[in-house]
Amino acid sequence: MMNADQMLDAKGLACPMPIIRTRKAMQELAAGQVLEVHATDKGAKSDLAAWAKSGGHRLLEDREEDGVLKFWIQKG
């Protein structure tokens, strides 16, 4: 289990809301801190990976548990 500095619950939100909420939450973190994101929108898997890469962040891990996609993104 990864440790996160902050957790974002984006379950039940459709694209592009998980990305918008993730971007807002990342602005509150310092470089190197980790945001854990929970989403149910299947598109979030590719969207968050692409967003993290384009924003200079690192997607440390992603997995699915009971229909919930979980992401750990380190702020760049």
Automatic annotation (TrEMBL):
Residues 8-32 form the UPF0033 domain. It comes from the Bacteria. Pfam families: TusA. InterPro entries: TusA-like, TusA-like_sf. PROSITE patterns: UPF0033. PANTHER family: SULFUR CARRIER PROTEIN YEDF-RELATED. Belongs to the sulfur carrier protein TusA family. This is UPF0033 domain-containing protein. It comes from Paenibacillus mucilaginosus K02.
